[in-house]
Amino acid sequence: MKKLLLAALLLWATTGFAQDTEIPGRFMQNHNLLSRSPNSGIGIKGGVSFANLHGSDKDRLGSTSSLTSYHAGVFAQLGISNFFSLQPELLYSRKGFEREGTAHRLDYLEAPVLAVFNISDNLSVHLGPQVGVMMTAQEEEKEVDLERYHTFDYGFAAGLEGKMGRFRLGARYGHGLGDLLKRDSGGKSLDADAKNGVIQVYLGVGL
Length: 207
Prior knowledge:
By secondary structure, this protein is mainly beta.
């Protein structure tokens, strides 16, 4: 979390420096055009996550239920036109599931790259691919060996976002396409179609 906050501050400081420094020639002209775009900017975001598993073999793990957790990170929106922009993000995202009263928490560093389509001045649709790397895994409060899991995940995300001034409020579904489990709790190889799925509700602030 500290690394993400530091990244946000660095992005903010870099943007402020670039705006206050005279840069000659065509690059300065392009920078001014970009800064005037209503779809451009950087910011921080965070919110609540509702994570679970999907896939034809998830029932082999027993009865699972949703895990309520959180996510947070930084984003940069790159305006292409008044209707369309690209939005890369870097997020700390906690996923996982609950099974038989035990919480399985999976912490990812995640990078979505989303196409943003403006329906109106204050409402947009987001859609695009994302990749993630599992950093740690816990069962209740005890950290477990990552050898049980496929630590690389990929998939796509889709959602809606409303914007008012500097503030953004949105909801998104992230659909994992990579198998999650590599081995069972006894260390035996496990071939199971069980993947991450997460609903995220977030608040963002443009800097």
